[in-house]
Amino acid sequence: MKPTGYKDINGQEILMKWAMPEWMEQFCGTYLYEKNEVERLMNTKTNVLVNAPLSLECVSMESKVRLLEKLYKDGLLTVNHFDC
């Protein structure tokens, strides 16, 4: 696991456990935030009692990412493999 460059509320370095797959990058800027922000939110562990807005943002991002992963796995997601 590599460092993300971000720190949690306790000042501990957040390690990147989840990295965005290449096929998902085409959804950045439309359905998802930019790649670095998505990876930061997916790797952030927080508590709703400590930081409710951040917790809500993390849960929201994780649900979007999991939906894309499921659609991709089931072959229901059209992925553009060409640079436009």
Your description of this structure?
- The chain is α+β, with helices and mostly antiparallel strands and 84 residues long.
- It is built from two helices and two strands.
- It has a two-stranded antiparallel sheet with strand order 1-2.
- Strand 1 (2-7) and strand 2 (13-16) form a beta hairpin.
- The longest helix has 22 residues, at 52-73.
- The chain is globular, with a radius of gyration of 14 Å.
- Broad shape: globular
Output the radius of gyration.
Answer: 14 Å
Strand order of the largest sheet: 1-2
Beta fraction = 5-15%
Order of helices and strands: EEHH
Structural class: alpha+beta
Question: What would you say about this model in short?
Answer:
The chain has 84 residues and is an alpha+beta fold.
Question: Which features does this protein show?
Answer:
single chain; alpha+beta; two-stranded antiparallel sheet; 2 helices; 37% helix; globular
Topology:
Blueprint: E1 2-7, E2 13-16, H1 35-43, H2 52-73
Antiparallel strand pairs: 1-2
